[in-house]
Amino acid sequence: MRDKKKDTSSFSSAEKIPRNKKGAAITKVQELVYELKVGDAMHKNMITASVDTSMRQLREILRSHRISGTPIMDGDKLVGIVSIEDFIKWLAEGGKDCSIREKMTKNVKTLYADEPLVHAVSKLEQMGFGRFPVLDRQSNKLVGVITKGDIIESLLRELEVDYHEEEIHRYRASHIFEDIIADKATLTFQYSVKAKDFSRAGEVSSALRKTLNRLGIHPNIVRRAAIASYEAEMNVVIYTDGGEIVMTVRPDKIQIDVKDSGPGIADIKKAFEPGYSTAPDWVRELGFGAGMGLCNIKKCSDETVLNSTVGKGTHLKVSINMNTAER
Amino acid sequence: MKLIRIKELLKADVLCLEECLDNEIKIACGSDLMSDVLAFIKPNALLLTGLTNSQVVRTAEMAEVSAICFVRGKTPDTNTIELAKERKIPLLTTKYSMYECCGRLYQNGLPACGIPK
């Protein structure tokens, strides 16, 4: 009942993996067996048995855990390994109960956790074993066990991660701009902001932030745009009868236009002063209205233009240049 | 510092996203003024606050705050907790005061988010 040797052939050694037939996926696996370490693929919560265990007890251990072999420990020291093969040999010899010490394989072949996975793949193939105990190189202590199943699982896991990254990659706007053929391309996103709805305030900026992330914009730029937009959105929610936020994204910059229809700001210069606020108490109790909003917006942007007419409304224009990611 | 260590130091309860306790927190910031948080906080931070409305979570989302801990035994309403879950921001609550929390974390090596020049 030794693990079928055939199973490992496709992973036998990186050199042998057929490249031309299955193309990219196989090449990716090839890459991964070199990138990943034995420690990444092994399982850590392994079943071990003490050297004083009887062979009968071992039979129960193997059966109940549905495993075909286990490392044998003397205290915390690895002293041997028992495989199904040892077990069958014992049965063939009459199966008289004795301690594992007498029947185990003492010359244990091991791997180190920091070795590349490809070593495990080729050793499994060469020696035909089902499992290898894995040691920490410094302490020489047993830290895990690696089987063919572990290797396959770890490779599948890594491939899945790559697949997700690939999916996200597909959303990137940098590609949109690369793919679109035009002398000038601009993406426009429009959102409406409800007045005095404090529990939902911030939803627009949240959506705007997600959009920019999906477009693959640099995280620093996204952060600045999101904070500026959020402060502006809060102002619309707190002070006005509602308005809209329009974001335009171009290869060179993001512009956020925040418009409302009143009541307007009487003293624009004062509004930009840190700490100047006309916020009522209920707003301050919610953690806003301390007269920092416009300062924050200015801090986040490369250009801030505020136009306002009392009784008519306010138009705030915020620009962030794409080449200021490291600002 | 791992979030689980912060939980221990502040003897905090986890309100949501227990599975995120392994997250690495680099800095902390204590404030009840969300505009200040937006102005000064940096990514991978813990936000300590006495405010419990949903805007705290929104602010955390915009400022890329990694976790929020409510001080002095405060807990937000279920809508706020749901929002935090959705935005993958773990929430904690501790009985300690803001000052006590800051002291405990700073003493154990969790720095502030920058000292003004």
Automatic annotation (TrEMBL), chain A:
Record InterPro entries: CBS_dom, CBS_dom_sf, CBS_domain-containing, HATPase_C_sf, HATPase_dom
Pfam families to which the protein is assigned, alphabetical: CBS, HATPase_c
Matches recorded under SUPFAM superfamilies: ATPase domain of HSP90 chaperone/DNA topoisomerase II/histidine kinase, CBS-domain pair
Keyword Disulfide bond: no
Gene Ontology molecular function, alphabetical: kinase activity
Superkingdom, taxonomy of origin: Bacteria
Protein name, per record: Histidine kinase
Organism (species): Candidatus Ghiorseimicrobium undicola
Lineage: Bacteria, Pseudomonadati, Candidatus Omnitrophota, Candidatus Ghiorseimicrobium
UniProtKB/TrEMBL annotation, chain B:
Ranges in coiled-coil conformation: none
Ranges of residues in domain DRTGG: 6-104
Subunit structure: Homohexamer.
Protein name: DRTGG domain-containing protein
Species, as recorded: Candidatus Ghiorseimicrobium undicola
